[in-house]
Structure formats: structure tokens, C-alpha cells
């Protein structure tokens, strides 16, 4: 093969926010697939806040990306050549193929997706990892009972948050979202059916949250951590559950992570706070995907994707959009 494989590799471990010099843009050789392998061209790359964590050389649920390695990323490729029994030329396949234009894979962890059943970006959003995260974080970790309960979700206008709120509505709960800016808040209520939304960049956030949660909160699904987690801790009901999904407000901190000062409200409310990693539910993904696909089909869940048209080289700039709150729903880079 003569085509080159454009890659983004990690050049240096970022301190705070990622800088252009933390990345290396490389033209690597492509190769033909060997026995039991397929080759594919990348169409869509998933942008995830967790990527920032993967760049730190610390103990985590997954090893850090090594210096000089292709940046880890979920993506969808179209198969262009195959010696693999399960994947044929023309198939679309989702997997952790990295930020690169050309892929050769043995198929491990890869899954064929059907572009005629759902638009490709949906397989990285509502029907992909963020959808699974919302489903299991809310229903298993958050143990949502449904009607009569109030769910509060931060990062509510993002990939995971939009799904958390809508699944909670399907289950009959009252739903309150926290997001940045009046447009996102209006979208949550007007388009996605949330009962209320609080703009954390607005005035008197504490008062707005109190007004939006008259019956307090039974499940708090936390995507952002920091001050918002602290505030949510002041609104708990007896036996409330907090699902610690992420803490995007803390990912670029150069020194310490800000912990919750109000944690004693867990004692007062006999509440619990529990972290989770979606990959622990991998065996149950088909069950969740089938449920979510059903709700989409019934018109009870609206899928939200934010597709940036670009090239592999646009990955670093697109990633930083997440930390500036420039995305609505699942952020995806379309490269082919
Ligand atoms: P996302 O919500 O689509 O995008 C990130 C959003 O975070 C931005 O749009 C922005 O929205 C908000 N944000 C950025 N900086 C912020 C800050 N300083 N304070 C408050 N909000 C801020 O991302 P996602 O993919 O759905 O991920 C959401 C969270 O889930 C992340 O924390 C991620 O790490 C976590 N996650 C965890 C798992 C797991 O297995 N535990 C799996 C997937 C994702 P605003 O405009 O509203 O600020």
C-alpha cells in the first residue's frame, strides 16, 4: 500500500490544559492486513473528556497513553480490505482504533454497526459508550426507582448528561439538569423534556437549584465535580444516591483535585456516593443498547450529536472544545 497513515501521537505529558506541542502529527506507513486481520479507513473519531485523564502518568482504570504512542480513541472505520472472518469490505466497525486515518485490526473489541439502522455518530453517542454510561450509572449505581423521585444531572447538555436526563424521564422521574448558558438550559427543557434546568454560569446558582428541586434530590448523577458537586450535596433527600461518573471541572487541574467540603450531608441524609467505570458493564451493553434503541424508535429519546467536519490534524483543537463547553451532545470529529 502506498497511502500514508496520518496519526496524532502523544509528544509530551500535558501540564494543565493540552497545548499544541503536547501532540505530534505523523505520517506513518500503512500496511496490508495479515491473516485474521482487516484494514479500514477512519470515518469518525469520538472525543471524550476521559482522554485528558489518559494522558497523565498515574494509576487509573486503564494504563496511560505512552509518549510516542498513537492517541487512544474510540472511532468508526470502514473496512477496505479483510482477511477476517467476521468483517467484510464495506462494513462499518466501531472500536478503540486511535487517532489515525488508517487502521489494521485483529478485530478484538471491534463491533460491526449498521448505518441503515442509525446514523453513524449515534453509535458513538446514545448507542455507544456515553449511552451505556448513562444507562448503568443511572439505573444501577444511582438505583433510580422512577416515579416520585428527582434526578439531578450535571454536564446535562453533554453526551452522557442528555441521555441520563432522558432515560430518567422514560422511567418517570422528575429531572433537573445543570449546564452552562441559557441556550443549553432552554434546549434541555424545550427539546429534551427536562422539568427544569439550572445555568451554573448564571447568577444565584444556589437559589436557582433550590427553586428547581422543591422536593430535593434522590439521585445526583455527577459529571463535573468541584463546586457543583458541593452544591448538589446540599440538596439531598434521605437515602439519596450520588453516582460519580466524572469530574470534568477538575481534569485540567495542575495540582490537587478539589474535593467535596459538604460531604457530611451524606451522613445527615444517610446517603451514599459511588464511583463507577462503564467498561465494568461491558457484558450487559447489548441489553442497554436494545433498550435505548427502542426508546429512540418510540420517539421517547432524542439523540444529540455535535459533528465537527475536519481532518485527523484537527483532533487536538476539537478535544479542547469539550473543556470550553462548546459541544451540545456527543462530540465527534468526522474525518472522511
Ligand atoms: P460532554 O458532557 O459531552 O462534554 C463535556 C461538557 O462538560 C462540556 O460540554 C461542558 O458543558 C462541561 N464542562 C466543561 N468544563 C466544565 C467545568 N469546568 N465545569 C462544569 N462543566 C464543565 O462529555 P461526556 O462525554 O458526556 O462526559 C461527561 C462526563 O462523564 C465526563 O466527566 C466524563 O469523564 C465522564 N464519563 C465517565 C465514564 C465512566 O465510565 N465513569 C464514561 C464516560 C464519560 P457546559 O457548557 O455545560 O459547561
Provide a descriptive summary of the structure in words.
- This protein has 336 residues and is of the alpha/beta class.
- The chain has two domains: 4-125 and 303-335, Medium-chain alcohol dehydrogenases, catalytic domain (Quinone Oxidoreductase, Chain A, domain 1, Alpha-Beta Complex), CATH 3.90.180.10; 129-279, Rossmann fold, CATH 3.40.50.720.
- The chain is built from nine helices and 15 strands.
- It has helices spanning 50-54, 129-141, 159-170, 182-190, 205-212, 226-232, 265-268, 285-297, 315-323; strands spanning 4-10, 23-29, 38-46, 75-82, 92-95, 102-105, 111-113, 150-154, 174-179, 196-199, 217-222, 236-244, 272-275, 305-309, 330-334.
- The strands form three sheets. Strands 3, 4, 5, 6, 7, 14 and 15 form a seven-stranded mixed β-sheet that branches.
- Helix 3 (159-170) links the parallel strand 8 and strand 9.
- Helix 2 crosses helix 3 (159-170) and helix 2 crosses helix 8 (285-297).
- The radius of gyration is 20 Å and the shape is globular.
- The relative contact order is 0.16.
- The site of NADP nicotinamide-adenine-dinucleotide phosphate has 31 residues, from helix 2, helix 3 and helix 9.
Give me a quick take on this structure:
This protein is α/β, with parallel strands linked by helices and 336 residues long.
Amino acid at each position: 500500500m502506498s497511502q500514508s497513515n496520518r496519526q496524532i501521537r502523544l509528544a509530551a505529558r500535558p501540564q494543565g490544559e493540552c497545548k499544541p506541542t503536547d501532540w505530534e502529527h505523523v505520517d506513518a506507513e500503512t500496511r496490508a492486513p495479515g491473516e485474521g486481520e482487516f484494514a479500514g479507513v477512519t470515518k469518525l473519531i469520538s472525543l471524550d473528556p476521559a482522554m485528558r485523564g489518559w494522558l497523565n502518568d498515574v494509576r487509573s482504570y486503564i494504563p496511560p497513553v505512552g509518549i510516542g504512542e498513537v492517541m487512544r480513541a474510540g472511532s468508526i472505520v470502514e473496512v477496505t480490505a479483510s482477511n477476517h472472518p467476521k468483517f467484510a469490505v464495506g462494513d462499518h466497525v466501531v472500536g478503540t482504533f486511535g487517532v489515525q486515518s488508517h487502521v489494521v485490526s485483529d478485530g478484538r473489541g471491534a463491533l460491526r454497526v449498521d448505518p441503515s439502522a442509525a446514523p453513524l455518530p449515534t453509535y458513538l453517542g446514545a448507542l455507544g459508550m456515553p449511552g451505556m454510561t448513562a444507562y448503568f450509572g443511572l439505573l444501577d449505581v444511582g438505583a433510580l426507582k422512577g416515579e416520585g423521585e428527582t434526578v439531578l444531572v450535571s454536564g446535562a447538555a453533554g453526551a452522557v448528561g442528555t441521555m441520563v436526563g432522558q432515560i430518567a424521564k422514560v422511567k418517570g422521574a422528575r429531572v433537573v439538569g445543570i449546564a452552562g448558558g441559557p441556550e443549553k438550559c432552554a434546549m434541555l427543557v424545550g427539546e429534551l423534556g427536562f422539568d427544569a434546568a439550572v445555568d451554573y454560569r448564571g447568577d444565584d446558582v444556589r437559589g436557582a437549584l433550590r427553586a428547581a428541586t422543591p422536593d430535593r434530590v434522590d439521585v445526583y448523577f455527577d459529571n463535573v465535580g468541584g463546586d457543583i458537586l458541593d452544591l448538589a450535596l446540599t440538596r439531598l433527600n434521605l437515602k439519596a444516591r450520588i453516582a460519580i461518573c466524572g469530574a470534568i471541572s477538575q481534569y485540567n487541574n495542575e495540582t490537587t483535585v478539589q474535593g467535596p467540603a459538604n460531604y457530611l450531608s451524606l451522613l445527615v441524609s444517610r446517603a451514599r456516593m459511588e464511583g463507577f467505570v462503564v467498561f465494568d458493564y461491558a457484558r450487559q451493553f447489548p441489553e442497554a443498547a436494545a433498550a435505548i434503541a427502542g426508546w429512540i424508535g418510540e420517539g421517547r429519546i432524542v439523540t444529540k450529536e455535535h459533528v465537527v467536519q475536519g481532518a485527523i490534524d484537527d483532533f487536538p483543537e476539537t478535544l479542547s472544545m469539550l473543556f470550553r463547553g462548546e459541544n451540545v451532545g456527543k462530540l465527534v470529529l468526522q474525518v472522511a
